[in-house]
Amino acid sequence: PDGGAGASLVQSLTASASVAGIPMPQDQCQVEQNQAEAALDSWLLHQCSDLVLCTQNSLQSLQADVERTRAFLVDLYHILEELRMRRAASDVGVSDKETNLRLLYKNLLRSMERKTQEVQRMQEDAEMLNQFCRGGRDACGMKQDPAEVS
């Protein structure tokens, strides 16, 4: 009853099972843990990819808005110049229309500047997300390819 033969048999069976690729309870826990980590990594990458796509769509929309605003500002600038030249030629004061257009121009210019800054921030966010999704995973302890984890 010293258990020597039984302990020896358990060690022998455990070694044989490991060599044969039969998961033992401890190995099974490790496999399940690896699968859980792979599932989490896969979910994180999927969420990250979805967020990258949404950010890129928002970025494109905002960039189009900035370009449209810029084009309108150019047109508005030329209209204001025309009104200024007419006013100078006729020696009359500034009209309500010109005043309102100047206010519109200034407000649109400030708006475009804010949108341009937001575009820059969104580009930084998109770059950070892309870096994470494409290779920055190591820094977070994630597997390179969740499909490879078994």
UniProtKB/TrEMBL annotation:
Key words, A-Z: Coiled coil
Organism ancestry: Eukaryota, Sar, Alveolata, Dinophyceae, Gonyaulacales
Entry coiled-coil feature ranges: 105-132
Species this protein is from: Alexandrium andersonii
Name used for this protein in its record: Uncharacterized protein
